[in-house]
Amino acid sequence: MLLWQIDTTDDWMWGDMGKLYFWIRRQDLAASRFEHAWAVIQG
Known about the structure:
This protein has one domain (2-42). With 43 residues, the protein is mainly beta. A 3-stranded antiparallel sheet has the order 1-2-3, with no helix packed on it. Helices cover 12% and strands 37% of the residues.
């Protein structure tokens, strides 16, 4: 599931005006296992 999404701003830029997504499995979130999350950059 989507844990956190960050859009490009004037101060932060992901690729060419993209977004940064952090994903985590529902069971890992329930157990607070954030080390199992992963990031995807859309540029």
